[in-house]
Structures are given as C-alpha cells and as structure tokens.
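Homework help board

Subject: predicted structure for assignment chain

Our instructor gave us this sequence and asked us to write out the predicted structure in token form, then describe one feature. I got the tokens but I'm not sure how to describe them. Can anyone check?
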Amino acid sequence: MFYHPAIQEVIDLHTFFEAWLGGTLPENDGEFARFTAATDPGFTLISPDGATLDAAAVADWIRQAHGTRPGFRLWTTDHQLRYADDACALVTYLEWQTRADVTTCRISTAFFVAAPGAPNGFAWRHVHETWRTPD
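My token output:
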C-alpha cells in the first residue's frame, strides 16, 4: 500500500519506538540515529498531560528508555493527511500502546517539514498528543 511519505514516517518511527523501548534493537548510536535523523532541531512535543518538551529532552528520554518496556506493543492507525505541499505536511493518527496488558490510545497531530536527509524525506517538527478513550 502506498502512503504519503509523512504517513510512512509515522508508521516507521513508531515501529522503531516499539523495538527500541522493548529492547529488541541493539542499544547503539547507529540504531538510535533512526530517531535523530527523523527529528528537526526545532522539534517540540506536547504530551497528553500537557508537558512541552524540546528536541534534546525528547531525544535524551528516548535514548535512556532503551529496553525499559519488555513486551511493549506500539502501533498507529487512522492515519489522515490533513495538508501537504513540497515544504511540509500535517498528519493526524491514533497511537496505541499496550503495557502490562493495559492498552491506551492517544490522538496525535504531527507537523513535518521537508528534509531530504530524513528517512522518508520529512522531519518531525511538532507533535501534539491528547488522551483518547478507546472505543
């Protein structure tokens, strides 16, 4: 199935997160580079609880969290391309996580900027997440 490159990036990076946090990827700079290559230096994350984190804070957290969630499952659904042109893209999606047999869901809005060196040609600039009650 063909996805817009920004949607493919959502899918691919969350696959990385599942493997990194679950500890199935080796903990080394080469593997972690998948994350840093995909994020813009001006990246901002607004978490579901309202905390705002910059690129360095998110990278530090993810780097330190390697292997901290054995058996962790993470996937995305309901991807929608809300806007795209040659310079940017706006995507919404549902992010699902299962930890210790508890599944949570958040709706996320992600803003991407074109970045030829990024894995799918778009770098994450901003993400805003909100808790959602699963149906």
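Reply (TA_rk): Your tokens look well-formed. For the description, you could write something like this. The longest helix spans residues 5-22. That's the kind of observation they're looking for.
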